[in-house]
Amino acid sequence: MRPFTPRQQVQNSAFLGALARTGNARLAARELGVNRSTYTKRRARSRRFAAQWRAALAASQARLAGTPAAPPPDPKALRTVGGEPHLVHRKDGTLQLRRARTGWMTPAAETRFLQALEGSANVRMSSAAIGFAHTTLYRRRTRSPAFAEATSAALDTACLHLRAALMQAFDRLAGPQYGDTEEGWEERTRDCPLPPMTVDDVLQLLRFHDRRGEG
Predict the structure, then answer these.
(1) DSSP characters over 131-192
(2) Is the pTM of this model over 0.85?
(3) What are the backbone dihedrals phi and psi of residue 77, each rounded to the nearest 5 degrees, phi first?
(4) Strand, helix or coil at 82?
(5) Better pLDDT: 187 or 33
(6) CA distance linking residue 201 with residue 84, whole number of Å
(7) N or C, which end of the chain is more exposed by having fewer CB within 10 Å?
């Protein structure tokens, strides 16, 4: 079996996180802006990814069991209708209330984008999750210091999670070290969210995300 590329590994990790949250493979893929068949094909070729898929579904059931059903979000809530009061972050850092044009990004869309960015460290996928082009988010970040700061914070959080996952994957690749017990090593690496990677894979992926997730 051909191993997953570093980019595919990041996509798989983001998908598994969304799957564990939603319990819905189609919805999880849609949130990331990727066709579900992309992940089903990967599941068919990788026993490890298939096992992680099952584990994510099991985790979702435990999480959702005590959660009351909520109505699906209104897609219109992510874009302004036009004419409603709209809070704008100006370049000088001040706030200003304006009448929104049709199709502007709402605060709800901005919040959802930042949440998706924390989970994926990928601007393109997070933009697709709210139905906007990634260039729109880049322009918004340029024009709004507050949004730029929030975006940087979300990327920092995502990259911290990614680095921790990479170190765990590296630990599993390296195997038990001097002083480790087999049971201790298994416990430490059992829930690794990424498939095994080579050292080159780890370094390449870290370099990629050091460019602030602009993939």
Answers:
(1) T--HHHHHHHHHH-HHHHHHHHHHHHHHHHHHHHHHHHHHHHHH---TT--HHHHHHHHTT-
(2) no
(3) -70, -15
(4) coil
(5) 33
(6) 48
(7) N
